[in-house]
Give the backbone structure.
Amino acid sequence: MRTIVITGGTDGMGAALARHYLAVGDRVVVIGRDQAKFEALRATAASPANQGATGSTTFDSGAARAEFVAADLSSIADSRRVVEQLRREHESIDALVLAASFIRRHRHLTAEGHEASWVLFFVSKYLLVTGLADRLRAAGRPIVVNTAVPGTRADAIDFDDPGMSRGFSFARANAQQRRANELLGLLATAEDPRLAYVTWGPKGLVRTGFTGEVGPGMKMAAAVLGAIAGKHPDVAVRPIIDLIDAPTPGRAAYRGAKPAPLVGGEHDREDIARLAEMIDRDFR
């Protein structure tokens, strides 16, 4: 039985992945903010068990293999607590899917004094990937799937002001997070060459709602277009399932099932070191 950890696993594609892996008999740890949504997910979980002597298929409940860790991953304290709990309760982790999302169009400071999007979309992922490195290493074929859409400029990170106290924009913040997550893949695979690390984004629209501060116009447009042309989350995650079930060591990037180019810069190694130093300085 594999252990699959999914952040943002109560909604959309994260929930679709959780349903799939509970159905095939794996242990699934969902990290999220909404206990009620998790209970609804767990209530529907069932997986085919071994066939009996008569050849008939019986079913066992997946509820016992579904675990929930309540956390807001825009909180450094919650992110650290999640890492500690996972380390305490699991000796190995086969797949870590980083899918938590809360879109903010404007700069927002958390109660801890950090820019919320930077923490949610990168710092929490850094803490999870590095904090769980030995648990991933203990698995036979470990993989991290990071739903940070691949592809952005190599110079997208503002190392002097990553919280963007000056000149914040959604586009700048998004590009910075995406680049930082690609560098995180370089760090993670350098430390464990057996690890598969994939930055992944969907190909086209997915029939799921935006979570966050996106305004009624964008939500309505997404709902209408998604209903017309969007893929159901259960279909959209099929490429992720294929990647998890047959991981290839090293870094890769995909849009849907199609490989995407990895961004390379002249100073990748130096930039990785600067990111690590920044985390140690500002978030430990």
About this structure: The chain has a mean pLDDT of 88. DSSP finds ten helices and twelve strands in the chain. The chain has one domain: 3-282. Residues 63 and 171 are 40 Å apart (CA to CA).
